[in-house]
From TrEMBL:
The lineage of its organism: Bacteria, Pseudomonadati, Spirochaetota, Spirochaetia, Spirochaetales. It comes from Treponema bryantii. It comes from the Bacteria. This is IS66 C-terminal element. InterPro entries: IS66_C, Transposase-related, Transposase_IS66_central. It holds the Pfam family DDE_Tnp_IS66.
Length: 121
């Protein structure tokens, strides 16, 4: 028997009232109880926030946000950001159609080797 005023009863009721949400942790094992991964993924944005004050204009701040979005999206797709940005900047001038632009998304792009002075690395 659980006393009406006990902390145990509060905890059990809390759990029962959210049972459907708790089942999601069984259905979706990639879901975590911790927000640490999400907090780490936005850390670069938080660190750059002060720099946005000195972007010079609203357009400069938007450009900074755009580049950071590209970098974080590349990371989320398992691509080294410098490789993604290099390939993107090499191929973007030749994109004309919507299909061409879709090929440049991190989950579609083909990362090519870096070329220095005529030699491939």
């Amino acid at each position: 028997m659980i006393l009406d005023s006990s902390k145990t009863k509060e905890a059990v009721n809390y759990c029962l009232n959210r049972w459907e949400n708790l089942e999601n942790f069984i259905k979706y094992p990639e879901a975590t109880f911790s927000t640490n991964a999400a907090e780490r993924s936005v850390k670069s944005w938080v660190m750059a926030r002060r720099n946005f004050l000195f972007s010079g204009s609203g357009n400069g701040a938007r450009a900074s946000c755009f580049i950071l979005s590209l970098i974080e999206t590349a990371k989320q797709n398992g691509i080294a950001p410098e490789d993604y940005l290099r390939c993107l900047f090499e191929k973007a001038p030749y994109a004309e159609t919507e299909n061409d632009w879709e090929k440049l998304l991190p989950w579609n792009i083909e990362i090519t080797p870096y070329k220095i002075r005529g030699e491939w690395i």
